[in-house]
Amino acid sequence: MVRMDAGLSLLGKVKTISRGEDFARDRSGDIYKVTRNLDPAAHPFERAREYTRALNTVKLERLFAKPFVGALSGHIDGVYCVAKHPTKLATLFSGSADGEVRIWSLTSQKTTWTTRAHQGFVRGIAPVPFSDNFVTVGEDKIVKMWNQESTEPLNTFISRAAFTGVDHHRTKPLFATSSTQIDIWDHSRAEPVQNFSWGAETITSVKFNQTETDVFASCGTDRTVILYDLRTSSPLSKMIMKMRTNAIAWNPMEAFNFTIANEDHNCYTFDMRKMDSAMNVHKDHVSAVLDIDYSPTGEEFVTGGYDRTVRIFNAREGHSRDVYHTKRMQRIFCVKFSMDAKFVLSGSDDGNIRLWKAAASEKLGVTTNRERSATNYTKSVKDRYKHLPEIRRIDQHRRVPKSIAKAKYTKRVMVESAKKREDNERNHSKPGAVPYKAERKKNVLANEK
Amino acid sequence: MPGQKGKAASSASRPGADVTTSGVRQPDEKQVMDERKQAAASKKYDRAGTTNIPLRSVNDKKLKSKLKSTEKTSRQAALQAAQAEFLLPQEAGYLEAEGMEKTWKFTQAQMKDAVDLNTSSKMFDLKLNDFGAYSVDYTRNGKHMLIGGRKGHIATFDWKAGRLGCEVHVRETVRDVKWLHNETMFAVAQKKYTYIYDNTGMELHCLRQHTEVNRLEFLPYHFLLATVGNAGWLKYQDTSTGKLVAELRTKQGRCDVMTQNPQNAILNLGHGNGTVSMWAPTISTPLVKMLCHKGPVRAVAIDRGGIHMATTGLDGQMKLWDLRTYKCLQQYYTKSPAATLAISHQGLLAVGYGPNVSVWKDAFRTKQKEPYVSHLSAGNTIQDIAFCPYEDVLGIGHSGGISSVVVPGSGEPNFDTMEANPYQTKSQRQETEVHSLLDKIQPEMITMEADFIGTVDRAPAEVISEERRLEWEANHPNEKFVPKHKARGKSSSQRRYLRKQTNVLDGRRNELREKMEAEKKERERDRKRALGEVEEERPRTALDRFTKRAKTQ
Q: What pLDDT does residue B531 have?
C-alpha cells in the first residue's frame, strides 16, 4: 500500500530516455534516419581521424594516378602543332612535320579528316572563331584556309618567307603570322594588311590576347618578347631575356598576364604593365620548355619540354603540380589544355598526340552526388593537413625516368655551385660590389619601348 | 549586461510603460541574449581553438587573408553547430523529489510504476546463481550486452529485445569480458590465456601472449586490445592486424584495475601501492604516476570528456580528480571499500560496494551529501557495473547474476549515427566496420594531448629537447642520451665564412672591443653617480701627478 502511494507520487517526476524500435524510421520502406550530435565530447580523436583520412587520401591519390587516357596515332612524322576547336570540345586539329594536317575526334580517338596541306613542316594551325574553318601555315611560305567539307583549301595566301606560327584574332576576320616579321592578314585580301617588325632575325611564335583582343605578343630568336597592339602601327614594347623564348600563353582570365616558355628550362609569368620583373618563375623542367597553354580557368597551365615530359603548373606556384611521361614519348613540341580543363594533350616527335587527364587520379565519367561530396571532403581534409611531413612526402613524390632524375640532380649541383661561387665572390670583394639579384629579375636583360 | 536586464524588468513590471519603447527595447535585449547564448554555445563547439596570434602582426598579405577566412569559417561552424542544438530530437531524463522526498529513496519497483512500458521493460534481473560474480560490458552503441561469470559462463544478448546471441561455458575461470569494435567479436580473459570469440560463440583466437589476464580494455579508434594481469605486464594487441604492438612492464606487480581515458586513449592502471599510472603504447614508462590512496587501488573510472577521474581504494576512500591539474577535487568515505566504479555519459558516478550501488549526481562539481539513486542487490556482492550508452540504464554484474537498473538522466539522449548507432542495421554495421578500419589511428599517435596533431609546438627549443631526452631515455633504459645537433641552415658558404671570421683576431676588432668595454664602464659609473653612490677614492700615489684629471672633479 505504501509502495503504491509512493509510486503514484512519482508520476510526472521521472523521465527517462525512451525511444521505440521504430525510432530509426517510420515505415519499413523509408530510408534510415541520420541523427547528428555535434558535441565534441561525442567525437573523440577528431584531429587524429582526420589526419588518418588525409593520409589515406594522398595514398589513394597516388595509387589511382593513371593520367594517360590514350594516344592518337596516325601522323607519320612528328606533330609540330595542335589547335583546339573554338566551340567543339571533342575536336582537335593537328599538323605534322611531313605537311599532313588531321582533324581528330577525341571521343573515338580517330582521325575524321586528313589532307596533305603543305610541302615540308606545318608550322601553325589557328581555328577561325565561330566557324568550322581553320588556317594553317607551313614552311613552304603558304597560308591555307580550310574547311572540313573538302580536302581542297578554301583560300590560299602566299608570302615571301617561311612561316613559324599563326594565330587568329578573337572576333575580327584577321590572323597574324610570324616569319621574319609579323604579318596581319585579312580573310578577304591576298596581301597582308599590316606588318610589324622590331629587329628580330626570326619571330618564332605569335599569340593574340583573347580578352583584350587587339593586343598580341611574339617571341623571336634574338631572345626578345615583343608586345603589339593592332590599333597602333608600331610595336608597344620589347623585352630581352637571357635566353630565347619558345612560346607564349596569355592568361584567359587575367587579361594583362602572360606566361612564356623559355629555353633556360623555366617559365616566367609577366604582367604586361610591369615587364622589368617576372611575377613568378616556374621551375621544374630539366630541359628547354617548348610549348605552353593555359587552362580555360586561368588557374593552371601545361608545359611540354625537350626533356620528354609534360608538366602541369599551378599558375601561382613556382613548382609543377604534376609530371607526365611515358617510355615511348619523345620531345614534346606542342601541348594544349582542353576547354573543359579536364584533359591535356601533348604532341610529340614520335608522331603521336597523347591525351592525359589534368588531374591524374580523378575518376572519369559521371559522378554521383555522394561521390562528389566525398571527393570534396577528402580534398579539404588533405588541404588541411598538407604541411605535415608524411602527407607532404607522399603527395609530392613522383617517379620520373632516370635520365630526368639525374638531370635534376646535376642541375641542382650546378645551381648550388654557382651560388657558392657568387657567395665567395661577394665575401671577398668590397661590400656592395657584387649585389644580390632577385630571381625574378635575373633573366630580364632589358626593356625597350 | 545586468544593468540592461534590470531596466527591462522594471519597465515590464510597470503597467503604464510606453508600449513602443518597450517594444523597441525587447528585441534588442533578446538579440543580446541570443548573442550571449550563441557565444557560450560556440565556446562548446569551438574546434579550432582560440588562436593567440594577433592578425595585425602578420605581414604577409596572402597569409593574413587566409588566416582571417579560416578563423571566420571555424567561428561560423561553431555558431551553426550551436544553433543546430535546437534540432536535437531528445532530451535527457530526470528524477525529481518534492518536499521531504529523497530521490535516492525511490526504488526500482516504484519507478517501474511511474515510467512508460518501454522503459520498464529495461528493468530486469537475471538470476544466475551457479556461475557466480558476473562482469558486464555493453557495445559502443548500447545495443548488445556481454556477461561473463567468474566460473566460466559467457553470454551475449540484444538486451532490449531480449534476444540471446550466444551462450557458452568455457569450464574455467573468466576474469573479464570485453566487446571488440562491434557486436561480432568479443574478448574473454580466462584462467590462463585470453581468447577472442565471435557472435556465435566460436573461438576465433587464443592469445597465448596474454597470460593470466585480470582486466581487458579495448580502444575502438585504434583497434587495440589492452590486457593487464598477474604478472603486471600491460600488453597491446592490434585486433585488425593481429600484431602485438607493445609489451610494457609496469614493475608494480599484480594489477587488476584498468580503465581507458576515452578522450586520449591513455590507459590508467591502479596498483597495489595506491598509485594510478597512465600508459601509452609507445613509451615504456608511465606518462603520469599519481599517488591516490594509502592502500591498494580498487577501481578507477574516467568520464566521457576525459577531464575527471574517480578512484576508490582499500583505505576506504573514494577520491575524485581533475585530470587537467591532477588535483583531488573531492574525497568521500565509503562504508566498505568500493569494488567498482562507472561514470555515465551525462556525468553520473556509480559506485558499487558490497551489495549496494549508489549513483551520485554532480559529484565532481560540489561535495554531495546524499546519492542521487541507490540500489540494493540483497544477498549479493557487486562485481562489475557499466552504464549503457545512450540509455538511462545501469548494468550490474554481481554474484547472483545480473541486474539492469534504470537511472534517469544518466545517458546521453542524442546519439550521433556516424559515431554509434543503436539502431544500426547489418549493412550499416558492415559499412561502419570498413570505415572505422580505414580511419584506424596508429598506436604511435596516442599521447596525453589528443589534439596535438596539426598544431604547432610553441614550446622553447630547450623544453622540446628536454622532452626528447626524457622520451629517449624512457625507451632506452641503459643508454646515455647524446643529443643530435642538427645544423640546419649552417652549411651555406656565407655562414661558414662568417663562422670562420669569429676566430680571427685583428687590430680593428680588438680596438672596438676595448672601446666597448670602456663605454660600458663609463655607463656603469654614470649609473652609480645618478644613484648617489659615492665612488671609492683611490689612495693617491706619487705617480698620479702625471695622469690627467677629469675636468668635473
A: 85
Q: State the smallest CA–CA distance between residue B80 and chain A in angstroms.
A: 10
Mean pLDDT within B134-147:
96
Our count of domains for chain B comes to 3
Q: Do both B75 and B116 map to the same domain?
A: no
CB contact under 8 A, A423 and B492: yes
pLDDT over 80 at B198, yes or no: yes
B277: nearest Cα among B315, B342, B231, B326: B326
Identify which of B45, B115, B406 has the shortest CB distance to residue A40: B45
Q: Which domains, and CATH codes, for chain A? A: 46-65+372-424 (no CATH), 68-362 (2.130.10.10)
Contact B118 A11 (CB under 8 A): no
Q: Which residues contact A297 (CB under 8 A, 6 or more apart)?
A: A252, A253, A341
CATH number for the domain spanning B217: value is 2.130.10.10
Contact, A162 vs A140, CB < 8 A?
yes
Q: Is A101 within 8 Å of A137 (Cβ atoms)?
A: no
Q: Pick out chain A residues at pLDDT < 70.
A: 1-9, 200
- In angstroms, the first-to-last Cα distance of chain A is 109
Provide, as residue numbers in chain A, all residues whose Cβ is less than 8 Å from the Cβ of B91: 15
Specify if B464 maps to a domain. Answer: no
**A40, closest residue in chain B (CA to CA):** B45
**Grid cell at residue B71:** 578563423
Which residue of B118, B307, B359, B491 to mutate against A (max A Cβ within 10 Å)? B118
**pLDDT score, position B27:** 55
Q: What is the pLDDT of residue B536?
A: 64
Cβ neighbours of A8 in B, within 8 Å: 113
Buried/exposed A44-67: b ≥16 CB within 10 Å, e otherwise: bbebbbbbbbbbbbbeebeeeeeb
Higher model confidence: residue B41 or residue A223?
A223
Q: Within 13 Å of residue B282, how many CA atoms lie on the same side as its CB?
A: 11
Do residue B280 and residue B133 come from a single domain? yes
CA A29 to chain B, closest CA, distance in angstroms equals 14
- Residues in chain B with CB shorter than 8 Å from the CB of A23 are 423
Residues 174-203, chain B: which have Cβ within 8 Å of A? none
Q: Is residue B426 part of a domain?
A: no
Judging contacts by C-beta atoms under 8 Å, the chain A residues touching residue B265 are 45
* A419 contacts on B by Cβ (under 8 Å): 493
Parent domain of B505: 486-526
Residue A105 has a pLDDT of: 96
Residue range B467-481: average pLDDT?
Answer: 85
- The residue behind cell 607526365 is A324
Judge whether B412 is closer than 8 Å to chain A, CB to CB. yes
At residue B52's C-alpha, the angle toward residues B47 and B56, to 5°, is 125
- Of A311-320, A395-404, B74-83, B116-125, give the lowest mean pLDDT range: B74-83
Question: Do B45 and B159 sit in the same domain of this protein?
Answer: no
Same domain, B490 and B357: no
B419·A34 Cβ contact <8 A: no
Model confidence at B497, pLDDT cuts 50, 70, 90, reads: confident
Name residues 87-106 of chain B within 8 A of A (Cβ): 88-98, 101, 106
> Which residue, B358, B380, B406, sits at the end of a domain?
B406
| pLDDT band for position B53 (cuts 50, 70, 90) | low
